[in-house]
Amino acid sequence: MDLENPMNNDFRVVSELTYKRQNEEFRPDITILVN
C-alpha cells in the first residue's frame, strides 16, 4: 500500500463478501479492499 501517493493504489468496495474461518462464516455489509 502506497501511503505517500494514495492514487497509486487500487481500491475496491464489495458488498456482503463472505468470509469463512474453520466452521464459522460471516458476511460484513461492506468490505473495502486496497491493492
UniProtKB/TrEMBL annotation:
InterPro entries: Restrct_endonuc_type1_HsdR_N (IPR007409). This is Restriction endonuclease type I HsdR N-terminal domain-containing protein. Residues 2-35 form the Restriction endonuclease type I HsdR N-terminal domain. Coiled coil: none annotated. Gene3D superfamilies: 3.90.1570.50. GO terms for molecular function: ATP binding; DNA binding; type I site-specific deoxyribonuclease activity. One of its GO terms (biological process) is DNA restriction-modification system.
